[in-house]
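hey m, so remember when u said the tokens were messed up on ur end? i reran from scratch. heres the input so u can diff it against urs
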Amino acid sequence: MPPGDLTNEELRRYDGSNPALPILLAAKGRIFDMTRGRDFYGKGGPYNCFAGIDCSRALAKVSLEKKDLNANCADLFASERDVLNDWVAKFEAKYPVVGNVLDSTYDGAP
């Protein structure tokens, strides 16, 4: 099990590029262990761009674009916040929460 709370810099280590480490991603400042979804979130997987970061904005916008791969949710529409909340609920049901991002830039939008 990886350490609990991590900084953004520490989280980057868990991007799926090292098969000896778990694959982590954060959403709304919460860190999820996505290792059991290695085919999707690991190196070469379709959602690997989410690994090792807080990808809240990209989840909310259902985007794989580099400009959206961050935690900035300040300007989201209510419908996008709902999408983000749905993703977080799905992650909570399927993947363990292992910590929080200590220096999260997630703005706390509901």
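this time it looks ok to me. Helices lie at 8-11, 38-41, 56-61, 78-94. if urs says something different then somethings off w ur setup not the seq
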